[in-house]
Amino acid sequence: MMKGFSGSLFLLIFRMKSKFNSLMRSLIAGLLVASFSLPAAAQSTGAYFTTYPTLTPDGKTVIFSFEGDLWKADVQNPQAVRLTAMPGSEILAKVSPDGKWIAFTAYQFGNADVFLMPVEGGDIRQLTMHEAGDLMESWSWDSRSVYITSSREGTTTSYKVSIDGGTPVRMFSHYFNVIHNVVEHPSSGEIFFNEIGRAHV
Fold first, then answer.
1. Is the dihedral of CA 156, 50, 64, 81 positive or negative?
2. What is the CA radius of gyration of the chain?
C-alpha cells in the first residue's frame, strides 16, 4: 500500500511540476512580447492638445498650434512638419485665399503682434508692432491685406493692414464703433462683423 501510494504521489508531483513549468514558460514568453512592444508604444507620434486649426484653401493641408509653435500636416497623412520655432507662442494662423501666405499672432516681446510667413515655411516678417495686443482675424480676398483686432487706440476693435507693412487702418473711425471677427465677402466686398455679440453686414 505504501509503495503504491508513494508511486501515485510521485506521479502527481511530476504532473504538477510539468504544468508549473509550462505555465512559467507561457508567462515568460508573454512578458518578453510585452517588453518588446513597449518601445513602439512609447514612440507613438500622436499629438494631443493641438489648437487653432485652419485649412488651406484647397482643403488638403491643416495648420495648427502645438507646444507654442505652428505645424502643418496633410489631412491624409498624420505626419506633421514644424513651421515655426520662435521663442514665444504662435497662435491664430490663417491662410491667405491664394494659398501662399500664413498670417498669425505671436507673443514674442511681451505682447501679441501679427506676423507673416510663406505656407511652405521660410522667412517670417512682423506686420504689426505696438505695445497693445494685435490678434489675427482674417484675410482680404485679394490676399493683399489682413484684418486684425487691436486695442491700440484704447478700445478693442478691428483694423486692416497691408501685408507690405504700414500703419493699420481702423475699420470704423468713431471711437464707440467697436467691432471684431471681420470677414470680407469674396465678390461684393461687403464686410461682415460682430458688435456686442450681434452680427452685421
1. positive
2. 31
